[in-house]
Design goal:
Layout (H helix, E strand, L loop, with lengths): L1 H14 L6 E13 L5 E15 L7 E11 L2 E6 L7 E6 L2 E14 L4 E16 L2 E6 L5 E7 L17 E13 L3 E10 L13 E10 L1
Antiparallel strand pairs: 1-2, 1-12, 2-3, 2-4, 3-6, 4-5, 5-8, 6-7, 7-10, 8-9, 10-11, 11-12
Length: 216
């Protein structure tokens, strides 16, 4: 049901450019903090391109915000051995996704050169690549470091499943300011609807971001 709702919203959003009065393109970069359920948070990065389509025929200030982002949704965790094979093992991942958010937003003029905007809507993200590394403390107190999986989206765990699911979807919310119709600073939040690891199916993306964009 959630998948149907997300893709229905995406289809509707893609039809809205018919009513668009103006189009702007931009480039953005930012920092992510992923704090998924039941796992430890870790900082990552994002970069990509975005487009804004004005919808003044529907309402002044209304617009469609779309982006194509290459971003990390990093996480880490510490495990204790259940069979006394080691004391503990810390794993760390930096998985990269191609993320496609489609948001409806509204822009509020504050002064001649400053606008405040808010937008929200669904996203769909596709996992590309990313390693999982580990630092394991052995029973004799020595430490072993290395790569546990070369690609968390294709490598299999002990149960024969992919370590991390490729497809993720959810919703996001953005609040930001634009200066001189060129520079944007945005606070962002994305909430995943799907458990993204096969070991922790209840762990969903919980992503906080700060991004900077330049509109051409």
């Amino acid at each position: 049901m959630k998948r149907t709702i997300i893709f229905t919203l995406l289809s509707l959003a893609l039809c809205l450019p018919i009513a668009a009065q103006d189009v702007r393109f931009g480039a953005l970069a930012g920092v992510n903090l992923n704090a998924p359920d039941n796992l430890k948070s870790k900082i990552g990065y994002k970069l990509g391109a975005k487009a804004e389509l004005g919808l003044s025929d529907l309402s002044q200030g209304l617009y469609l915000d779309m982006a194509l982002l290459l971003e990390t949704r990093a996480w880490k965790e510490t495990y204790a051995s259940a069979i006394a094979a080691y004391k503990q093992s810390k794993v760390s991942t930096m998985p990269w996704y191609l993320n496609y958010p489609v948001h409806i937003g509204y822009r509020f003029p504050v002064s001649q050169n400053v606008n405040i905007f808010v937008n929200g809507g669904p996203y769909v993200a596709f996992g590309l690549f990313g390693k999982m590394t580990h630092e394991t403390v052995l029973m004799d107190g020595s430490t072993e470091k290395g790569t546990r999986y070369n690609n968390v989206f294709t490598d299999k765990n002990v149960n024969g499943e992919n370590v991390q699911r490729r497809l993720d979807w959810g919703v996001g919310l953005r609040l930001g300011a634009e200066f001189n119709n060129k520079y944007q600073v945005t606070l962002e939040y994305d909430r995943g609807f799907r458990g993204f690891t096969t070991d922790y199916l209840s762990s969903r993306a919980n992503l906080y971001s700060l991004s900077f964009a330049y509109m051409f």
